[in-house]
Specification:
single chain, 147 residues, mainly beta, Pnp Oxidase, Chain A, two-stranded antiparallel ribbon, 1 helix, 50% strand
């Protein structure tokens, strides 16, 4: 009997877990990226090879998009950040959890550390299109790991 493959999972929703906040499911999640800088140098006497050293690693901002629902938990956190000015901000750890077609089965998890919301945006409101309203939240994160 062939083993069940777990690659190429169908993903229907994302759930965001941030410390004590468990928000609604999301339709889109972008920016899950971790990248290390590369330093190149040439050693004396070896003119044919360029050596490469690892530099600092940084994570990209995470962009979350969902249909508008009356679930203010994450957006309340954004308001707290916006009103704090340059004071110490409430950074939080969390996870992006990819859910399968049933909306319950976890098919992937990415953990992030020291996040804070840098931007909230509402989609364009145009009654003539009949499109659903969407909210977007951008999180600055310091580290992303596969859970």
């Amino acid at each position: 009997m062939a083993a069940s493959r777990k690659d190429h999972q169908a993903i229907s929703f994302f759930r965001v877990e941030i410390d004590s906040i468990d928000s609604a499911s999301f339709r889109k999640c972008g920016g899950l990226k971790s990248e290390s800088e590369v330093f190149e140098y040439q050693e004396g006497g070896d003119n044919e090879t360029v050596r490469k050293l690892i530099g600092p690693t940084k994570a990209s901002n995470i962009l979350l998009t969902k249909g508008y629902v009356c679930d203010p938990a994450l957006f309340k956190w954004r308001d707290e950040i916006a009103s704090s000015g340059t004071k110490k901000i409430a950074r939080r750890n969390g996870s992006i959890v990819a859910l399968g077609p049933d909306g319950k089965t976890e098919v992937g998890r990415w953990n992030f550390q020291k996040a804070w919301p840098v931007r909230w945006e509402m989609s364009e409101l145009d009654a003539s299109t009949g499109q659903a309203m969407c909210e977007m939240l951008e999180l600055a994160v310091e580290k992303v790991t596969k859970g």
